[in-house]
Amino acid sequence: DNLIYMKYNIETQQWEKETIDEEGDVGGNPSILLDSNDNPHIVYFENGYDQLKYAYYNEGEWQVTIIDSSGSMGLWTSIQENAEGKLSVWYYNTLLDKAVNLQQVEGTTWQQNTYDLGGFALYQGDLVVDDSNYLHITYYSKEEKDLRYVVWQEE
Length: 155
Description:
The structure is a single chain. It contains no helices and 13 strands. By secondary structure, it is mainly β. The strands form 4 sheets. The chain has a 4-stranded antiparallel sheet, with no helix packed on it. Strands 7-8-9-10 form a 4-stranded antiparallel sheet, with no helix packed on it. Strands 11-12-13 form a 3-stranded antiparallel sheet, with no helix packed on it.
């Protein structure tokens, strides 16, 4: 499978298709955002090598990088941009059985934080970063069978 980006061209009234990544079985559990300059950023799972990848559009071309290769992770990804224009990626790491947040430090350098949400808790999670850089996380707890909401702030 490939990671494909499609956009609609209003002038030609046609869909335009771009293949971003075709190395391996890519594109699982994707999340996309448009940054403040309307450039797309995508995080997604590569199943063959158990890697979390990040693709972004920069100066007319796609850049693809691996942001986590610790194995068996990348389920239920989410990507957001904070008030300073830095990215925050959220996903569930099945190997660690923890939720993971990657905060963009600079370019393709990331700082990793892990969160224990109580067993196999995170299912179909999502994240939003507010103007104060607080993480607002929603997820479904399979064990408790309920929807949960967490707010995380740096101390």
